[in-house]
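Sequence in, structure out. Go.
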Amino acid sequence: MKEFLSKYRWHATAALAAISIAILFYFSQNKNMDSTEQKYTPSETAVQPGAGTSAGDTAGAQSGAAEAQVPDEIYVDVKGAVKHPGIYKADMDERVYDLIQKAGGFEKNADQSQVNLAQRVKDEMVIQVPEKGKKTVPAQPAGTASGTAAQPASDAASGTPGEAAEKININTADEAQLETLPGIGPSKARAIIEYREKNGPFQKPEDLKNVSGIGDQTFAKIESSITLQ
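Output:
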């Protein structure tokens, strides 16, 4: 028996060594597989749910907010020398003239020269039509339309205080106001009003030179003192 064990001892030793190597290899492979799975775990959760649609959602929200700022309906208050004063519904592209027609038109004593008929209407606007021989002091909001309406805020902010008030609106000014312009006397003031009533509001300041008696020299004197707004 001793001879047998001595003879085959190295076979047993080799077998044990092979078994040990196989066990070590097995555990080594399992460990590597666990490490690989842990390594790729973050990449599977890197993309947050809904990240691909966040930009679209934001754009949609902004678009909805912009639409909410546009008024669904416009209402204008027509006062003074019109046949049926009151609050009237209007469209975005309508003018002061259109709203006065909705109010039945001018009364016989209305001073049409003090109203800018071509002005586009706005929501909450007040159209004040004065009587002849009377002057009105309208409220200050930019939407007010009358002969002495306040200048737009952009004009008032682009110079020294009071500069905007000094300009004369050649589309709404009466004869007395036009005569305050340099070189404009009673006859030229009447000519401006007659031209305006016949041809409608001035579209640009240079149109004044189409009025009889107003040439380049006269226009050059008054150009900085007039406005169409």
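Check: The CA atoms of residues 118 and 126 lie 15 Å apart. The helical segments are 2-44, 54-69, 96-102, 153-156, 163-166, 175-178, 186-199, 216-222.
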